[in-house]
Amino acid sequence: MTMWVFGYGSLVWNPGFEVQERVIASLSGYHRSFCMRSIHHRGTDENPGLVLALDEAKDIVCRGVGLSVATEKQDEVLAYLRERELISSAYLEKFLDIELSDGRRVEAVTYVVDPYHVQYCGGLALEEQARIIAQAVGGRGPNTEYLFNTTAHLNELGIMDEDLEWLVDRVRNLNG
To answer: CB within 10 Å: which end of the chain, N or C, has fewer?
Structure first.
């Protein structure tokens, strides 16, 4: 059976593994938002940044990409994803049904935020998100780079996210 991964943030533009097939996909019951404080990749303990996470919500759909993995690489990719995504246990690994743009429904490894984790910060106003993103830097670089790359790559795929667009404009304005 083919292993699928649902990408909605940096996995869209930087999966870190060989992708066999890449298809626009939708996940029901979750939305993409900057609802997790980043103390490793895009911020520090002293100056946390923000990263995108899937936050559960009724009657909503998140558009992203389904990424398939070659059978012989599945164990290796799953180990890599767990090391990357579960670094602080703020994400929960779930196997959720996604709908691919060609009509197929597949189960995908999906990383969703744990709303009870100390790094969870759902509900932050967009202005506060912009101010945090504008100045935070972590082990993988500036928080702005994460925002700009994710938004640009989603746009290239025809996936528009109004909140991300607003944040890009505001962060650029804050950083002059």
So the answer is: C
Per residue in 15-73, pLDDT (tens digit) is: 999 999 999 999 999 999 999 999 988 999 999 999 999 999 999 999 999 999 999 99
Helix (H, G, I), strand (E, B), or coil: what is residue 17? coil
Give the residue numbers annotated as catalytic, written as ranges: 85
Q: Give me the number of domains the chain comprises.
A: 1
Domain containing residue 21: 3-174
Give per-residue burial for 6-17: e unless 16+ CB within 10 Å, then b.
bbbbbbbbebeb
